Amino acid sequence: MRVRFTAILLLATAFPLSVTAASDAERWYVEDYARLWQGKPGDNIDRLLAHYADQIVTHEADGTISVTPKRTWLAEPMAEWLAEGWLESELKQLVSDQLNDSTASFKALWIDRYENDPEGVSCGWYLADRIDGRWQFTHYADIDCEAHGLQ
C-alpha cells in the first residue's frame, strides 16, 4: 500500500511540474515576443533582436539552408517592410511544443497590416533554445499555413 501511495504522490507532483514547464516557452513567445510586433514594431527592433541567437539558421522551401547574423536577418528586412507601408503584425494562432527544458518549436500564424493594402497572412516555424538562461530563436522557416493546420 505504501508503494502505491508513493507512486501516486510522485505522479501527482510531477504532472503539474511538466504542465508548467511545457507552457514556459509558449508564454515567452506570446507574452514577451509576439506583443513586440504590435503597435510600432519598428521602435522595438533592439528588443526583438534580443529574442534571437547571434546567428539564425533559415530553412528555405527549396531545401536551401543559410546562416545569417541576427541583425542582418531581421533589422534590414524590417526597414524594407516599413518603407513599403507595413504597420504591424498580430499573432493569431500558435502551436507550440516544448521538447525539453532547452528546446521548443513553434508554428505561428500572423496577420500583417499595411497602410494601403488589405491585411496579409503569413506563417512561420521557429525553433528556440534556452541559451544563457533565456529562450532565443535559432532556426526559422516560412511555412504554408493550411498545410500545417493554421487558419
Overview of this protein structure:
- The protein has 151 residues and is an alpha+beta fold.
- Helices cover 34% and strands 40% of the residues.
- The chain has three helices and six strands; from the N terminus they run ααββαββββ.
- The chain has helices at 2-33, 45-49, 70-83; strands at 52-59, 65-69, 86-100, 103-114, 120-131, 134-142.
- Residues 1-22 have low confidence and may be disordered.
Secondary-structure blueprint of this entry?
Elements: H1 2-33, H2 45-49, E1 52-59, E2 65-69, H3 70-83, E3 86-100, E4 103-114, E5 120-131, E6 134-142
Parallel strand pairs: 1-6
Antiparallel strand pairs: 1-2, 3-4, 4-5, 5-6
Note the total helix count: 3
Proportion of β residues?
35-45%
Shape: globular
Strand elements, count:
6
Main sheet makeup? 6 strands, mixed
State the end-to-end distance.
Answer: 50 Å
Question: Strand arrangement, largest sheet?
Answer: 2-1-6-5-4-3
Query: Which structural class best describes the helix and strand composition?
Result: alpha+beta
Mean pLDDT: 87
User: What percent of residues adopt helix (DSSP H or I)?
Assistant: 25-40%
Helix-strand topology string? HHEEHEEEE
Radius of gyration: 18 Å
Low-pLDDT regions: 1-22
Name the descriptors.
151 residues, alpha+beta, 6-stranded mixed sheet
Give a short overview:
With 151 residues, the chain is of the alpha+beta class.
